[in-house]
């Protein structure tokens, strides 16, 4: 890993400045990176620091972390290294940049704002991954103290606030298009401590100086306006008068710093940030092969429609409701996740569906034919209302879908974790009904224990591995709860041993307790 420490030339500009540490914050200040002997000879005292005149490396720690890490608010700083990533075409790679203030440079309660700017990644052959298209930045926002929601950072104002004594993370994603040229792509991410809006406004010109500037500029315009038949002597007088006015403007107090620095002043904002920014070097090697559009391992994500309705005050079946579901569907697909929506009925019966429109609607073909969709749930309408109309709607739905090439991706999700033989019997009966419509129907059943009241084993937990025998041939996708399996590889092997792949049976794992995660997803989306 390559070091990305600030250049000696940049650091030398601030080595005479001693910046006061963050004090009075648990976990902050000297316990995380403030070196008492780091900057000597202070002439700032306890005044607010101007981040345009101090290298950002003196104000905050910056280091990279993998996407698999949970960067907590008390994460300790690490050395900053060169980020090297590998990706195929049509693959997404992510990493995190962790930020922790060493000191406070804002006059308000925050430690200070930072600006995060990423360059395009370029290859020697002219290839380019563009920021905002192939490269995205998101702020990792903690929920109940746990880093969770990824909130997009506005490219037009890429700033986030750091809090005293807390570590903050930025999530960086690189999306490699299918047609991207293979090779080595390089760029950098610049992290710069900046002034707060209130501090910047405090440096603005007072009204009297602004009025004087306006008056002098207007005078210059008036005396330089061309007039017909002006003599050369008159033109010389006008130019001389203009020169005098401009010189008078240059001696205004607002330009005092420019005089002291031979007219260079504070430089342009961009130049300032280039000189004081912490630079994270970034390299991405794009391999010469492409991942398929359809994921080889289906990953489905369930979203409760009632949560969407409550969260956004939407009425079921309205245009706003359809738009919200459509937004979720398209957003999750880009992450190679196949979504389904759901509504619970009595005793954990569940209406699960991927497309909110009926199969004969134009939008349905658009949904089901999307090559990024690895699996889709077909709604079993009678699960909530066992009427003749619901049964006819189901039959029509299956008759349309089973003629399509994507039918092999279809499944029914009927019951969320059945507990006893009575509930298992309901699944068997529905399966028999569906098999009269088409024999190749696939049913997904979730479970975390064997059915109570059965004679499969002495206890429901021991009967857990025997569930495939109870539901065969009425379930093809056996979805076990991840928390039950834990680290017990022997239990996983026992379950797999009970499956009949020759009958199309397969196993998958399920994460429960996703209500909070779904709320974070909604917050991120909207």
Overall number of structural domains:
2
Rg from Cα: 32 Å
Largest sheet: 5 strands, antiparallel
**N-to-C span:** 38 Å
The overall pLDDT, averaged over residues, is: 81
Describe the secondary-structure layout:
Layout: H1 8-12, E1 60-66, E2 83-89, E3 92-101, E4 112-118, E5 121-122, E6 128-129, E7 135-143, E8 146-152, E9 159-162, E10 168-175, E11 183-193, H2 197-202, H3 207-224, H4 232-250, H5 256-260, H6 269-276, E12 278-290, E13 300-304, H7 305-312, H8 319-333, E14 338-344, E15 350-353, H9 362-368, E16 376-377, H10 388-401, E17 410-416, H11 421-437, E18 443-447, H12 467-471, E19 477-481, H13 482-485, H14 489-498, E20 506-510, H15 515-525
Parallel strand pairs: 2-12, 13-14, 16-17, 17-18, 18-19, 19-20
Antiparallel strand pairs: 1-3, 3-10, 4-9, 4-11, 5-6, 7-8, 7-10, 11-12, 14-15
Helix pairs in contact: 3-4
Provide a compact summary of the structure.
Helices cover 29% and strands 24% of the residues. By secondary structure, the protein is of the alpha/beta class.
Overall description:
- The chain is of the alpha/beta class and about 525 residues long.
- It has helices at about 10, 195-200, 205-225, 230-250, 255-260, 270-275, 305-310, 320-335, 360-370, 390-400, 420-435, 465-470, 480-485, 490-500, 515-525; strands spanning about 60-65, 85-90, 90-100, 110-120, 120, 130, 135-145, 145-150, 160, 170-175, 185-195, 280-290, 300-305, 340-345, 350-355, 375, 410-415, 445, 475-480, 505-510.
- The strands form 5 sheets. A 5-stranded antiparallel β-sheet has the order 1-3-10-7-8.
- β7 and β8 form a beta hairpin.
């Amino acid at each position: 890993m390559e070091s990305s420490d600030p250049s000696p030339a940049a650091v030398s500009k601030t080595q005479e400045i001693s910046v006061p540490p963050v004090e009075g914050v648990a976990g902050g200040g000297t316990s995380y990176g403030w070196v008492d002997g780091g900057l000597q000879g202070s002439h700032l005292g306890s005044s607010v620091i101007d981040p345009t005149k101090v290298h950002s490396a003196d104000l905050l720690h910056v280091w990279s972390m993998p996407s698999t890490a949970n960067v907590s608010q008390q994460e300790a700083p690490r050395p900053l290294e060169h980020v090297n990533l590998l990706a195929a075409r049509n693959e997404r790679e992510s990493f995190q940049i962790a930020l922790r203030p060493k000191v406070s440079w804002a006059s308000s309660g925050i430690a200070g704002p930072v600006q995060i700017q990423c360059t395009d990644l370029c290859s020697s052959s002219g290839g380019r991954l563009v920021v905002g298209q192939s490269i995205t930045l998101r702020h990792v926002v903690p929920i109940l103290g746990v880093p969770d929601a990824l909130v997009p950072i506005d490219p037009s104002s890429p700033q986030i606030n750091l809090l005293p004594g807390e570590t903050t993370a930025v999530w960086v994603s690189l999306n490699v298009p299918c047609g991207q040229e293979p090779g080595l792509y390089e760029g950098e991410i610049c992290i710069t401590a900046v002034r707060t809006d209130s501090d910047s406004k405090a440096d603005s010109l007072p009204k009297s100086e602004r009025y004087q500037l306006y008056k002098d500029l207007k005078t210059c315009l008036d005396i330089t306006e061309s007039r017909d038949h002006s003599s050369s002597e008159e033109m010389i007088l006008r130019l001389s008068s203009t020169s005098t006015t401009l010189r008078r403007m240059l001696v205004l107090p607002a330009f005092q710093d420019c005089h002291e620095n031979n007219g260079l002043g504070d430089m342009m904002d961009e130049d300032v940030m280039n000189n004081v920014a912490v630079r994270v070097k970034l390299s991405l090697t794009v391999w010469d092969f492409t991942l398929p559009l359809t994921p080889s391992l289906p990953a489905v994500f369930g979203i409760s429609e009632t949560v969407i309705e409550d969260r956004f005050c939407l009425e079921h079946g309205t245009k706003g409701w359809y738009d919200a579901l459509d937004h979720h569907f398209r957003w999750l697909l880009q992450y190679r996740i196949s979504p389904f929506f759901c509504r619970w009925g009595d005793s954990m019966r569940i209406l699960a569906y991927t497309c909110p429109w009926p199969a004969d609607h134009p939008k349905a073909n658009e949904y089901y034919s999307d090559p990024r969709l690895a699996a889709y749930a077909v709604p079993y309408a009678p699960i909530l209302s066992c009427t003749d109309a619901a049964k006819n709607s189901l039959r029509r739905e299956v008759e349309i879908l089973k003629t399509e090439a994507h039918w092999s991706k279809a499944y029914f999700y009927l019951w969320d974790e059945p507990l006893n033989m009575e509930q298992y019997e309901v699944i068997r009966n529905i399966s028999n009904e569906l098999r009269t419509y088409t024999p190749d129907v696939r049913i997904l059943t979730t479970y975390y224990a064997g059915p109570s009241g059965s004679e499969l084993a002495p206890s429901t937990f021991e009967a857990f591995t025997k569930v495939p025998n109870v539901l065969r041939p009425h379930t093809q996708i056996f979805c076990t709860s991840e928390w039950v399996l834990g680290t017990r590889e022997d239990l996983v092997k026992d379950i797999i041993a009970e499956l009949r792949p020759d009958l199309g049976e397969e196993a998958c794992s399920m994460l429960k307790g996703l209500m909070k995660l779904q709320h974070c997803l909604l917050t991120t989306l909207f």
